[in-house]
Amino acid sequence: MVIVMFFLLSSIQRNPFGTNNLLSAEDQEEVKQQKIPSLEEIVNACKDRNISLIFDLRQPPPGHPYNESFVNVTVNAILNTSISEELILWLPDDNREEVIQRAPGFKQIYGRKRMKNDTLDAVNLSYTNLSVAEIRSYRKDNISVNLFVVNEPWLFSHLWCAGATSVTSNAFQLLKDLNRPIWLMDPDNYLIIWIVADVLALIHIIWAFVIQKKCLHRREEGNVFSMFCC
């Protein structure tokens, strides 16, 4: 979470998505004055707002004081707050069984497709890894589905209609006001439809040309027969 917050703060200078113009000068100045919060501060903020918090940890480099204990340190920080464990979505596979024992209320999220006889509660996958049929099958079996990274309104709408539980996005400003799916076609399907339409049009033109040529040929044969009779 600290990495995410740092990214949000540094993006004011780097402007990677070209969205700085959406902030007023006062808002930009306010963001620049923000400090990176501690993990416990973030957890408490989520607790106060009843917001779920998803954890996807990366092991610190060798030599870092928490290189081996980063999972335990994170779990300790969470348990030191009074947040409901049900609001914590836990992704890391490292020491997962130990985490389940220490915090059985954490929602365990898996970054892989389910296998035979799996009893998963939730998955976190790229939207390219799950078909619409798979999403609906997971939801039918009461498995929550979070998909990443979804930055386009049409894609968000498509996954919404497919039944996805939630999405991860870098374009919150584009998606936050969507109260229902928008009926837009994704570019690949749009291209396929136009290709099919062009092919059908070409076939129709060729068919019309062949029919016209046959009619002309029959007409010429009829004229020759009339001249012969005369």
From TrEMBL:
UniProt-annotated location(s): Membrane
PROSITE patterns listed in its UniProt record: GP_PDE
Principal location listed in the UniProt entry: membrane
Segments passing through the bilayer: 190-210
Keywords for this protein: Glycoprotein, Hydrolase, Membrane, Transmembrane, Transmembrane helix
Cited InterPro entries: GP_PDE_dom (IPR030395), PLC-like_Pdiesterase_TIM-brl (IPR017946)
Protein name: GP-PDE domain-containing protein
